[in-house]
Structures are given as structure tokens and as C-alpha cells.
Design a protein that fits this description.
Layout lengths: L1 E4 L6 E4 L11 H14 L11 E7 L7 E9 L8 E2 L17 E7 L2 E7 L9 H6 L9 E5 L14 H20 L7 E4 L2
Parallel strand pairs: 6-9
Antiparallel strand pairs: 1-2, 3-4, 3-8, 4-5, 6-7, 7-8
Length: 193
């Protein structure tokens, strides 16, 4: 049994092998037949296409933010932060493999952003990030993603620019402060409105 769409919008009907007339098949029978076909055609355990997160990249040697697609390595559930593979784009530091990446969920208003970055004291300050805030000094690179409620990340960042700026500035200040004190950077920041 399959669903066949007619040329008119919002109308479809069931087609079965052998053909069954609508008048002789109850709704429950049609649903049971269709469920059997869907169950038989259920996908196996082979992995589908890889998940990707579109986000903003604040590269060290760039004069503007770049919009890139980053592979998502792992998603437990939507309550946890997805693990996004930023290694392919974070290239400014030759010591990148030894540096810890800092992942932080930033909640501001109704939006949730994921900020991922690293710090390398041997690098020059990120010029583009210094344009976001006058006292911003970040020796490294950042990537920013908007988290979704039904999907791990949204395909575009739809939150207002002022919230993106606030998220980046707060992430940089809290992470820098924690690292200066020898503590772990925060994994979640809530910015009150």
C-alpha cells in the first residue's frame, strides 16, 4: 500500500496491491496496511548523511565574519550541547592540537547560542573581535551557532545582532576571567534582559 498524491493540492488517497475500493476498506484497515508497509520499509542502522551546523567563524586572519558549515560529531539529545567539529576551520595556531576548546551555551532572551573558541597567548589579538567591543582582547578564534529547540542547530542565525554581540562579549569576558583565575571556563551563561 502506498500514498499517491493527486494533482490537486492537499488531496491524496491510498493505493494498494491488489487494489481495494475505499468503500470496502475501513480507516483502521487502511492505517494498519500502511503501517505494515512503513515498518517493512524502515531504514536499517546504516548512517545517513552527516549532520552539519552553519555558523559564524571569527577567524584570526579575517577582516569579517565568515559563514561556514561545520560537521556535527555528536548529539546526545537537544538538552545537551552538540559537539561541533571546528578543527578544520580553526587554523591560526600551530599549537591547535594542544589547546583546549571552550564550548559554552549562551542563553539570552528566548535565544540559545553555542560559542566555541580557543585562546593561545602566543597569537596576536583577533582584530575582528576587537571591533565588536572596545576592550575585547581575544587571542584565538571563535565560532558561533544558534541552537534549535527541535534540531541541534539552526541553518541560519536569526537572533538579533545585539544579542550575538552580547553573547560574544560575555563569553570572552567570562572565559578570560576564569582562565586568569586558573578555573574552568563556564559551559553555560545566562544573560539577563
Amino acid at each position: 500500500m502506498s500514498i499517491k498524491h493527486l494533482n490537486t493540492p492537499h488531496r491524496c488517497h491510498l493505493v494498494s496491491d491488489p487494489p481495494v475500493k475505499w468503500a470496502t476498506q475501513t480507516v483502521q484497515e487502511a492505517v494498519a496496511d500502511y503501517a505494515h508497509v512503513v515498518e517493512a520499509a524502515a531504514p536499517d542502522d546504516t548512517p545517513g548523511p552527516p549532520l552539519a551546523a552553519r555558523g559564524h567563524l571569527y577567524a584570526l586572519r579575517s577582516r569579517r565574519k565568515l559563514i561556514k558549515s561545520f560537521p556535527i560529531i555528536h548529539v546526545d539529545d537537544l538538552d545537551n550541547i552538540p559537539v561541533v567539529d571546528v578543527d578544520a576551520y580553526f587554523k591560526a595556531s600551530p599549537r591547535m592540537a594542544q589547546l583546549p576548546l571552550h564550548h559554552c551555551r549562551v542563553i539570552i532572551d528566548k535565544y540559545q547560542l553555542l560559542v566555541v573558541g580557543y585562546v593561545d597567548d602566543q597569537l596576536d589579538p583577533n582584530h575582528f573581535l576587537s571591533l565588536i567591543g572596545p576592550s575585547t582582547l581575544w587571542r584565538g578564534e571563535l565560532a558561533l551557532f544558534q541552537l534549535g529547540k527541535r534540531v541541534p542547530t539552526l541553518s541560519t542565525i536569526s537572533c538579533p545582532t545585539r544579542f550575538v554581540r552580547a553573547a560574544i562579549l560575555t563569553f570572552i569576558s567570562r572565559t578570560t576571567e576564569a582562565l586568569d583565575r586558573g578555573k574552568a571556563p563556564p559551559s553555560e551563561i545566562i544573560i539577563p534582559q
